[in-house]
Every structure is written in C-alpha cells, then in structure tokens.
Amino acid sequence: MDKKLAKLPRVCNDKPVNLSDSEAEKSLNFLGNQVDDMSRFREFAEKEFKQLNKRLEGVAKKSDKLSDAIDDIQKYSYQYNVKLLGVPECNERETAATSTELCVRLFNGMGVEVKAHDIDIAHRVPHRNAFATGPKPIVCKFVRRVVKDEVIRQRKEASKVKSEALGLSSDASLCNVLVMEHLTPKAQNLLAEAKRFSKQHNFKFCWVKTLKYT
C-alpha cells in the first residue's frame, strides 16, 4: 500500500510533479478500491452491530422476565411475613423456637390472639447494614395471611408491650420495637428510592401496604 501511495502526485516547493495518464489512472483506481473496501467494511460492521444489538435486546428482555418471575414468587411468599425490629435477643444463639415464642407473646401483648401453630417459622436475620448494632431483626412467617394482616393492623401497639410479657428482664426495653411488612429485595430498593424522592419533593408520607406503595 505504501509503495502505491508513493506513486501519487507529490508537491515539491509548491510545484506539482507531473504523472503520465496511465500512472494517474492507476492511482485513482487504487484510491477508488480503497474507498470501496472501506464502504464494504462499514456496511459489514453496521450489519454486525445491528445483529449484536438485537441479540442483546433479546437477552435483556429474557432477563427482565426472569427477574419479574422471581419477584412474583418472592411476593407470594413474603405476603405471609412480618419483620420485627428492636426486639431484644434472649441470647446470642437464639433458636427459631425461642424467636417464635417471643413473637407469640409480643402479638398477644398487642391484643392479637396468636398461637404457636399460627406461625410457620420465626427466626433472626442479619442486619441489612453490616455496621448496624442492636438486636437482629426477626422475620415471622404466618400460616394464614389473615393473622398476619391483623398483626399489621395492631402494629402501633408493639412498642407499648412490657418486656416482662415476653419473658424478658425489666431492664429490656421494647419502646423501639417496630412491626412492618417484610419486603422483597426489589421492593425494599424501590421503597428506598420512593423515600428519597418524597424527601426531595417534600412529601409528608410514604408507606407500604401489602407490597403496594402509597
């Protein structure tokens, strides 16, 4: 290629070097071929890019459908759950049975009639914030949603229950206990975004009910 380019007209001291007609024709043909090659490559690259972009769009749609399916499964499961914050831990290795007993006593203290057989399982879970302190949250899964809904309706009574009612020492405090909907990870992130938006735009309230935002 460099050898062919060397045959093109050169300018020395602002004076063009004359080429024969045949040499000029060869040079023009060479440039024309180069332009044709570049045009073909561009068409090929654009075609490949469109096909790749189409594949990526297909993968993105499948990923979104899979994400929605997982979220639907989680929503169905989580609709039977409540999350309790601020309930003192009995010990560092609190068992699910002990957590269940704490929940039963707390709910009864709130004025909701709950028996151990109304609860599928209750257990401690790690804090969402790795640097958080205090008792670990409890996730309580009910057998029937109607019982869970009644607990949610009475949630404001949770902080009024005496520690002795849970079998805890009088030094333990329940004044910071919160009972709330157990949100899926996707819903939790959405709620965080909604709270930020409401704060920026001076909305007074932002809450969740049965995994719906208001």
Low-confidence parts lasting 5 or more residues at pLDDT below 50?
none
Overall mean confidence score, pLDDT: 83
Compressed to H and E, one letter per element, the order equals HEEHEHEEHEHEE
- The overall strand count is 8
**Count of domain modules:** 2
**Biggest sheet architecture:** 4 strands, antiparallel
What is the radius of gyration computed over CA atoms, rounded to a whole number of angstroms? 35 Å
- CATH fold descriptor of the largest domain: Alpha-Beta Plaits
CATH class wording of the largest domain = Alpha Beta
Topology:
Layout: H1 2-5, E1 11-12, E2 15-16, H2 21-78, E3 81-85, H3 96-109, E4 119-124, E5 138-142, H4 145-153, E6 178-181, H5 185-200, E7 208-209, E8 212-213
Antiparallel strand pairs: 1-2, 3-5, 3-6, 4-5, 7-8
3D architecture notes:
There is one protein chain. With 214 residues, this protein is an alpha+beta fold. The protein contains 5 helices and 8 strands, in the order αββαβαββαβαββ. A hairpin with a 2-residue loop joins β7 and β8 (212-213).
